[in-house]
Design goal:
Blueprint: H1 3-6, E1 11-15, E2 36-41, E3 58-59, H2 63-69, E4 76-77, E5 88-90, E6 93-95, E7 98-102, H3 106-111, E8 120-122, H4 133-142, E9 148-150, H5 160-168, E10 175-177, E11 199-201, H6 210-222, E12 228-230, H7 238-245, E13 255-257, H8 268-275, E14 283-285, H9 300-311, E15 318-320, H10 328-334, E16 346-348, H11 356-365, E17 374-376, H12 386-396, E18 403-405, H13 414-418, H14 424-427
Parallel strand pairs: 3-7, 4-8, 8-9, 9-10, 10-11, 11-12, 12-13, 13-14, 14-15, 15-16, 16-17, 17-18
Antiparallel strand pairs: 1-2, 2-7, 5-6
Length: about 425
């Protein structure tokens, strides 16, 4: 094997999957320590060596033994890696994984600090709690080159404040995933002190309300480098809208997820203000929000505001508007606003009361969306297949569309139904 290729540093990919249930909304508590599986992928300088001797072999070697066997600096520990296949893709190479049984005890978590060249550390859902804090501090103080850190879905809560000083010293950190850890409002003062932070995941934390929302807003105003922000499943109140408005300074943002935040139509102007000038925004997810009322009705002013917002974001590649309580009258206004979205690759409008009129509006715009690859659009208020047939026929002829889901079983039964489809003029 070419030695230039073999200079690729060793990589350990760790799948930290635990069968323990997550903490309830009522509080955070420690769980029994369960064994987890570490999936090790190694590419040393000379010939490949596999811990335990065989590729894909399940062994019970302690992590410390794996560290002794590896000949090159370990640069990554990743969770939830898909190791169902015989090989794992690492960079441009497909490498064989080896599995090691590992208990995420405080003592064993401390061992991760021996991998001082770590660039990526992902400890997703491995039941980390108060008893692990000292070990985590030890690890974070030693991995000076760390660029990406995930502590998502662990039971850390207010103990995140104890990790704050160690996090601030990670001068190279660009990505931080704290989904579901329920940090204290005081923790957010850390964010402006991470000068290279560009990717932030704070989903499922109840942080867009009250004091948390105000503290987050204040932090977002103090730095302006975010490219990727995931805030989904955080219910909004007045303080949360202040945080959204504070996004205005992050001009280079490319992805924003505000799904499941209970956002209402009266705050569309706030959202527009927060997204103003986002000339690079590629992904916007607004699904499962409350733009319409229980009958999927919106005022004309709010409809125009939503259309104007979408029209101002021509660089979008992903737009998710599933389940936002809109009907045909809104669809007829917002869908034409997408006509100049030449880069749009994925559009989803499922779970809304959009029927023939909305389908007709999309049918007329579809030809302008030259990059569209995925279209998700259910039948809404339609009563039969014929109401979507014109749109479906246009979608079938689209040069770049690879996935078309207009309503259940239509794609599977398209050949059987095609001969019965009526043209749009006949339907009118």
């Amino acid at each position: 094997m070419n030695k230039n290729v073999l200079k690729f540093a060793a990589l350990i990919c760790v799948s930290l999957t635990s069968s323990s249930a997550m903490a309830s909304r009522g509080g955070i508590h420690a769980h029994k320590v369960e064994p987890i599986t570490l999936s090790v992928v190694c590419m040393p300088t000379d010939e490949p060596q596999y811990v335990g001797g065989g590729q894909g072999e399940f062994i019970t070697t302690p992590l410390v033994y794996a560290r002794q066997v590896l000949k090159e600096p370990v640069i990554g520990l990743f969770c939830n890696l898909n190791v169902m296949n015989d090989f794992v893709k690492v960079g441009d190479y497909n490498l064989p994984p080896v599995k090691i049984t590992f208990l995420p005890t405080p003592e064993n978590i401390r061992l991760l600090g021996e991998f001082t060249y770590l660039v990526n550390l992902d400890l997703f859902q491995c039941n980390l709690g108060k008893q692990h804090v000292d070990s985590l501090i030890y690890v974070l103080e030693r991995v000076k080159h760390l660029q990406s850190l995930s502590l998502a879905q662990n039971f850390l809560g207010k103990d995140m404040n104890l990790l704050a000083p160690a996090l601030v010293n990670l001068g190279s950190l660009t990505s931080l995933d704290l989904a579901g850890v329920l940090p204290d409002p005081d923790f957010f003062v850390v964010l402006p002190r991470l000068p290279r932070l560009t990717r932030l995941v704070l989903a499922s934390n109840y942080i867009l309300q009250g004091n948390s929302g105000l503290r987050l807003a204040d932090s977002l105003r103090q730095f302006c480098g975010l490219i990727y922000l995931d805030l989904h499943n955080n219910e909004l109140d007045e303080a949360g809208y202040v945080a959204i408005e504070a996004l205005a300074g992050h001009k280079d943002m490319e992805y924003l997820n505000l799904s499941e935040t209970h956002m209402g139509p009266k705050y569309l102007s706030v959202l527009t203000s927060g997204l103003q000038g986002k000339a690079k925004l590629k992904g916007l997810e607004l699904s499962d929000n409350l733009f319409g009322d229980m009958n999927c009705r919106m005022t004309r002013d709010n409809t125009i505001a939503l259309a104007s917002l979408l029209e101002s974001l021509p660089t979008l590649e992903l737009l998710d508007l599933d389940h936002i309580r809109i009907a045909d009258d809104v669809a007829e206004t917002i869908i034409p606003a997408l006509r100049n979205h030449r880069s749009l690759k994925r559009l989803s409008l499922r779970g809304n009361q959009i029927s023939f009129r909305g389908h007709k509006a999309l049918e007329q715009v579809l030809g302008d969306l030259g990059s569209l690859e995925v279209l998700m659009f259910d039948q809404g208020g339609c009563t039969n297949y014929h109401n979507t047939s014109g749109l479906y026929e246009v979608a079938l002829k689209h040069p770049s569309l690879m996935t078309v889901d207009l309503w259940p079983d239509l794609a599977r039964e398209k050949d059987r139904h095609r001969k019965y489809a009526k043209t749009s003029s006949e339907l009118e």
